[in-house]
C-alpha cells in the first residue's frame, strides 16, 4: 500500500485522467470480457426419441459441447428402436479456427493494453522522446484494430454456424430411428448461447475502442504538427513594410522618366540684388540678333 500511495502522490497514475490512458484501461477490461465469454463457454442440449416399442426409447439424450467448438468430435448415442445397441452419431462441423483466432486476439490485446498502460505511467518521457514510442504505439494500435475487425467478423460467422450445427431440430435428422414416422423424436432443451452472443458484441466494442484510440495516439506521434507546418495557404497577403522611412518611398516620379517634355529645374536661384534689380538666376545668355541684321 505504501508503494501504491507513493506512486499516486507522485502523479504516476494521472495519465488515467487523460484519454490516452483511460481508453487503455477500457481496452484492457473489454479484452477480458471478450476472451472469457468465448473461451470459457460450455453448452448442452437435450432430445428425446420415443420408439413404437417404448422399451427401446430414450427420452433424455444429452449432447454437450464447448470451446473450441470442434463439433465433429462431439458424439451421442441414440436408440435404433429395433432392440440393437445404440447408434453413435457425431455432430457436424469444426469451428475452432474462428473461435481460437478471436480468443487469441483478445488475449494479446489484453497483454498489450496492460504493457502500454504501464509505459504511460512509468516511462512516459521516454515514450514521448523523439516520438518513437508514440509512432510504434500507433502502428501496433492500427494492427490490433484491423485484427479485431477480422476476428470479430470471423467469429460472428462461426457462431452462426455453431448455432445451426447444435440446433436440436437439425441434429434429430441425423438419427436413423427418427426416419420412421411411428417413432416420435423431439427436442427437449435448446442450448443457451447468450454468452456467445455477448462475446461477439464485446468483439465489436473492442474494435470501436481500438479505432478510437488511433486518434489519441496519432496526436502523440508529432505527425499532425509536421503536416500543419508544411501547409502553405495558396493566397497569402504580403506583409506590410515595417517603416516608410527606409530609404524613402523608393518610388520614381512617373513624370520624371526619360520621356520628353518639360523638366522643371528646382535648383533656380533668385532674389533681389543690391542695385534693386531682380536676378532670376537662370544663367541664360542674352539672345544675339547679329545674324538677323
UniProtKB/TrEMBL annotation:
Membrane topology category: Multi-pass membrane protein
- Keyword annotations from UniProtKB, A to Z: Glycoprotein, Membrane, Transmembrane, Transmembrane helix
Q: Where in the cell is it found?
A: Membrane
Q: TM segments?
A: 25-44, 101-124, 136-157, 200-218
What is this protein's record name?
Answer: MARVEL domain-containing protein
By its UniProt entry, which InterPro entries does this protein fall under? Marvel, Synaptophysin/porin
Q: Which Pfam families match?
A: MARVEL (PF01284)
The annotated regions of Polar residues compositional bias extend over: 281-293
Region (Disordered): which ranges?
A: 238-293
Primary subcellular site in the record, as a coarse category: membrane
> Does the record bear Transmembrane helix in its keywords?
yes
Q: Which residues form the MARVEL domain?
A: 15-222
Q: Which family does it belong to?
A: Belongs to the synaptophysin/synaptobrevin family.
Its Gene Ontology cellular component terms are: presynaptic active zone; synaptic vesicle membrane
Nucleus is among the record's keywords: no
